[in-house]
Fold:
Amino acid sequence: MHRTTMLPKDWWDLTAETLVENPTGQDVVALRAEIDQLRRALAGRAVIDRACGMVMVLAPCRQGPARNLLGDVAQQCNTELPDVAAAVVAAWEGEPLSWQMQRALRRALRRLYAEDRGCASRPTDEPSGRGRPRDPCSRCP
Structure:
């Protein structure tokens, strides 16, 4: 047996001013704000998970290192993780990444590969004589 509660169509259209006057209305306003925040978080999470999957395919790694790589790029670019994830997904679909994000992604990938190979030193972006980044050790690309 299912029990259905019918709410008036305009129930969600109530203004915050009317609801704030009574304690129940304050709870409704607070719950709506929390729902909006959770919806935004879930939307951002879906994009982050999709971008992690793309990184996992392109740079064979597990989910943890892929998420750390995206977080590293976000930190280098001084942007939020969902924004970096959205840019990676857009790049997968054909839109170019900004030069700053491309550079940060290259750095993060070098770090990931260096950690995978067990290199003690971290790769640097100091150009060598041929315009390529200097290799931290002989085992790193």
Summary: The chain has a mean pLDDT of 77. The first helix runs from residue 16 to 20. The radius of gyration is 23 Å. The helical segments are 16-20, 23-58, 63-77, 81-92, 99-117.
